[in-house]
Design a protein that fits this description.
Blueprint lengths: L11 E9 L6 E9 L19 E8 L8 E7 L7 E10 L5 H8 L19 H15 L8 H18 L4 E4 L8
Parallel strand pairs: 5-6
Antiparallel strand pairs: 1-2, 1-5, 2-3, 3-4
């Protein structure tokens, strides 16, 4: 990381995150949230969160780990442990009083299949297909992310990630006007 802390203004940031395992088009799409220090007193026992520690959770689908099939994962992670990260783009916020478990409730039930909405453009399920459906569901919740054009958001974020990769100063931190917190 570049040492820059992500501004959270008292809220938790839901950001779109890209990790690169090689060059485009091999971007891995995931969502993450950054919890400010002591955002809640009800951390899981395994969490090392303290009064001066930010905690990040990732939400994604993967074929790595115990199962070679696509499976959903919500896990605590350290962005420093992901040297392949290309860009972070803030796309929404989790309101005060909610935490990673609330976001997990919305995301864990997304099927590991191409949605009907994407059926004409996608033929294989990937982490990018899951990401698109995740943003749709978070938008539909009316709480976390407001995004009326997932196609334009995906294009912008992929173009920025590609440019960031070629700049070589990774990861890059961006903002977008195509997705934002609900007002």
């Amino acid at each position: 990381m570049d040492g820059t802390k992500h501004a959270n203004n008292g809220n938790w940031n839901a950001r779109a995150t890209w990790a690169v395992y090689g060059r485009q088009p091999q971007f891995h799409f995931l969502l993450d949230i950054l919890l400010p220090p002591c955002a809640t007193t009800d951390y899981p026992p395994s969490s090392p969160a303290t009064a001066d520690t930010e905690t990040t959770y990732k939400f994604h689908v993967t074929t790595e780990g115990a199962s070679p099939e696509w499976h959903y994962e919500c896990a605590q992670w350290d962005e420093e442990d992901l040297p392949q990260a290309v860009s972070f783009t803030k796309i929404g916020e989790i309101p005060d009083g909610l935490d990673h478990r609330h976001l997990d409730e919305y995301l864990r039930g997304i099927p590991m299949t191409v949605s009907k909405v994407d059926g004409n453009r996608e033929h294989l399920f990937t982490c990018r297909v899951w990401f698109r459906e995740a943003v749709r569901q978070l938008h539909d919740s009316g709480i976390f992310v407001e995004c009326h054009d997932i196609d334009s958001l995906e294009n912008e974020l992929t173009n920025r990630a590609t440019a960031a990769e070629y700049l070589g100063r990774l990861p890059q931190i961006y903002e977008t006007k195509l997705a934002r917190p609900w007002q």
